[in-house]
Design goal:
The chain has 34 helices and 2 strands. With about 675 residues, the protein is mainly alpha-helical. Among the domains are: about 90 residues, Serine Threonine Protein Phosphatase 5, Tetratricopeptide repeat (Alpha Horseshoe), CATH 1.25.40; about 25 residues, no CATH class. The protein has a two-stranded antiparallel sheet. A hairpin with a 5-residue loop joins strand 1 and strand 2. Helix 15 runs antiparallel to helix 16 and helix 27 packs antiparallel against helix 28. It is elongated. About 25% of the residues are buried. This is Crooked neck-like protein 1. Involved in pre-mRNA splicing process. As a component of the minor spliceosome, involved in the splicing of U12-type introns in pre-mRNAs. Keywords: mRNA processing, mRNA splicing, Nucleus, Phosphoprotein, Repeat, Spliceosome.
């Protein structure tokens, strides 16, 4: 190669050109270079025939190359039609139909050509052939009937419609036929077509549409045949029955009756539909019923529809969660306020059927109130004592008494039987409850019942059983002793108290001891009361016991009451010296000082003042949970003069105060030596 042809710069160009760009550019330039076709002017018949021959040859070549492309046939026929060669155009269309007789466009173009050229019989012939060949193409029927109607051939158009109806077409075809008859005021013929169409939907269609019945009824209403319209609605309701109810049918029926001012009929229709249609499918029905009641109803009717809406909401809630007992309570409250007894019982039965799946008492606490409300409804509202008893018994049989029970149910059942004057059944129920599942509440309720009946021997036996079951229950011991006290058996009451305080375990021993002491004070057995206090102090050295003991001696009402009371305070003070709780000791001394202020002499008052502690502020170190230093806190402590261990600290504190006083006096003297210093200020 010569040097001039060698590429010196082999780096890529800045603008890259793809093969696609090259091909597109070549195609565009090819179109630009294509010369426009020459304009040919035909001046005589020979040139025209030559032109026709060349065009026909072109069309024939295209058809021969691809016979199945129908657009080539249509273009060929339309070109011949433009030359007014109708016979040749017909021939082309016929040849095309031989190729593809199922092509809808081909038939339409063929028939439109005949109609355009006013060849009516030829057009009829084509439409007849089309509907015979392709009877399911609705467009052929529409065009054919429209052509006959435009020609004024009403009978011919009706005949075509009848032929079409024999093929059982879709809904729109029937309505077209009906509208055709209505355009010529043939109401009876339109009614007969409606009847045929309804019969067709009933016999042929598996799921007929309700809108056809509504259209039929509105047709009758529009032409003032109100009885016929009502009959159509009634037939529709009967035909669809309760299995295939549709809210649109009932809304239309109700609006028809509303237009006829039949308000009671409207109300009956709405209520009938609302009672039978599923609630989730009746939203529009609810809405229209509400509007109707607001327009024509009274207050009671509006309340009924509101209740129906709320009932629907509650039904949805309990369907979503059957164990939502709060929803059941609200639903039952609504039903009880506006329903008959059978409807209320039905809802109660549905509610109590939702037993909690887990046998744990916390899951049953809301559920049990369904039974209670059911029983109370039967007794108080329905006045059915027999059903009330059955409700209580069914509930008690359902409860798993070996795991837990509800004393409330047993007691309510017993009280119900007492109201029915059936005492043996009440006692039997309570006895069964104590035997199956003894509880404090059951014993208390049974004892209270027998007390009201004045059956004291039964009360004694029940208290004995109760105390065998729960010997640590101080309240039971106290109530038992109070019963014996009321009955006048003091020795028996005292023996019960003695048994009670002798129990190894008690839930509230202080209450029991106080009750025993109060009992002895009421009986004026002061020596026994003192012995009780002494026995109690052997068990506990609580400051309140000492104070109570001293107040008892003060209230004994004898001459030696003051020395006895002071002696008790002395003993208490000695006993409390070893007590770690200094606040209790301060409480005792304050009580003692109150006593001396009221009954003591100056000497005793001075003595008690010397025993009072000194309140000082201290600091102590705090520690966090992890053991780290959490800072300091201030607290108050008491320094008792009697505590010999604290005497050095007291002396040190007194000397510190004296030194501070001397320092302040010296500083004041240095500032103003002639000024007296007030001791109270220093």
């Amino acid at each position: 190669f010569p040097l001039a042809l060698q590429v010196k710069n082999k780096a890529p160009a800045e603008v890259q050109i793809t093969a696609e760009q090259l091909l597109r550019e070549a195609k565009e330039r090819e179109l630009e270079l294509l010369p426009p076709p020459p304009q040919q002017k035909i001046t005589d018949v020979e040139e025209l025939n030559d032109y026709k021959l060349r065009k026909r040859k072109t069309f024939e070549d295209n058809i021969r190359k691809n016979r199945t492309v129908i657009s080539n046939w249509i273009k060929y026929a339309q070109w011949e039609e433009s030359l007014k060669e109708i016979q040749r155009a017909r021939s082309i269309y016929e040849r095309a139909l031989d190729v593809d007789y199922r092509n809808v466009t081909l038939w339409l173009k063929y028939a439109e050509m005949e109609m355009k050229n006013r060849q009516v019989n030829h057009a009829r012939n084509i439409w007849d052939r089309a509907i015979t060949t392709l009877p399911r193409v609705n467009q052929f029927w529409y065009k054919y009937t429209y052509m006959e109607e435009m020609l004024g051939n009403v009978a011919g158009s009706r005949q075509v419609f009848e032929r079409w109806m024999e093929w059982q077409p879709e809904e729109q075809a029937w309505h077209s036929y009906i509208n055709f008859e209505l355009r010529y005021k043939e109401v009876d013929r339109a009614r007969s077509i409606y009847e045929r169409y309804i019969l067709f939907t009933v016999l042929v269609l598996v799921h007929p549409d309700v809108k056809n019945w509504i259209k039929y009824a509105r047709f009758e209403e529009k032409h003032s045949y109100f009885a016929h319209a009502r009959k159509v609605y009634e037939r529709a309701v009967e035909f669809f029955g309760e299995e295939h109810m549709d809210e649109h049918l009932y809304v239309a029926f109700a609006k028809f009756e509303e237009n006829q001012k039949e308000f009671e009929r409207v109300r009956v229709i709405y209520k009938y539909a609302l009672d039978r249609i599923p609630k989730q499918d009746a939203q529009n029905l609810f809405k229209n019923y509400t509007i109707f009641e607001k327009k024509f109803g009274d207050r009671r009717g509006i309340e009924d529809i509101i209740v129906s809406k709320r009932r629907f909401q509650y039904e949805e809630e309990v369907k979503a969660n059957p164990h939502n007992y709060d929803a059941w309570f609200d639903y039952l409250r609504l039903v009880e306020s506006d329903a008959d007894a059978e409807a209320v019982r039905e809802v109660y039965e549905r509610a109590i059927a939702n037993v909690p799946p887990i046998q744990e008492k916390r899951h049953w606490k809301r559920y049990i109130y369904l039974w209670i409300n059911y029983a109370l409804y039967e007794e108080l509202e329905a006045k059915a004592s027999k059903r009330t008893r059955q409700v209580y018994q069914a509930c008690l049989e359902l409860l798993p008494h070996k795991k837990f029970t509800f004393a409330k149910m047993w007691l309510l059942y017993a009280q119900f039987e007492i109201r029915q004057k059936n005492l043996p059944l009440a006692r039997r129920a309570l006895g069964t409850s104590i035997g199956k599942c003894p509880k404090n509440k059951l014993f208390k309720g049974y004892i209270e019942l027998e007390l009201q009946l004045r059956e004291f021997d039964r009360c004694r036996k029940l208290y004995e059983k109760f105390l065998e079951f729960a010997p640590e229950n101080c309240t039971s011991w106290i109530k038992f002793a109070e019963l014996e006290t009321i009955l006048g058996d003091i020795d028996r009451a005292r023996a019960i108290y003695e048994l009670a305080i002798g129990q190894p375990r008690l839930d509230m021993p202080e209450v029991l001891w106080k009750s025993y002491i109060d009992f002895e004070i009421e009986q004026e057995e002061y020596e026994k009361t003192r012995n009780l206090y002494r026995r109690l102090l052997q068990r506990t050295q609580h400051v309140k016991v000492w104070i109570s003991f001293a107040q008892f001696e003060l209230s004994a009402g004898r001459e030696e009451r003051l020395p006895r009371c002071r002696q008790i305070y002395e003993e208490a003070n000695k006993a409390m010296r070893s007590c770690e709780e200094k606040e209790e000791r301060v409480m005792l001394l304050e009580s003692w000082r109150s006593f001396e202020d009221e009954f003591g002499t100056d000497a005793t008052k001075e003595r008690i003042d010397k025993l009072m502690p000194e309140k000082i502020k201290k600091r102590r170190k705090l520690q966090a949970e992890d053991g780290s230093d959490a800072g300091w806190e201030e607290y108050y402590d008491y320094i008792f003069p009697e505590d010999t261990a604290n005497q050095p600290n007291l002396k040190l504190l007194a000397m510190a105060k004296l030194w501070k006083k001397q320092q302040q006096e010296s500083e004041a003297a240095a500032v103003d030596p002639d000024k007296d210093i007030d001791e109270s200020q220093t």
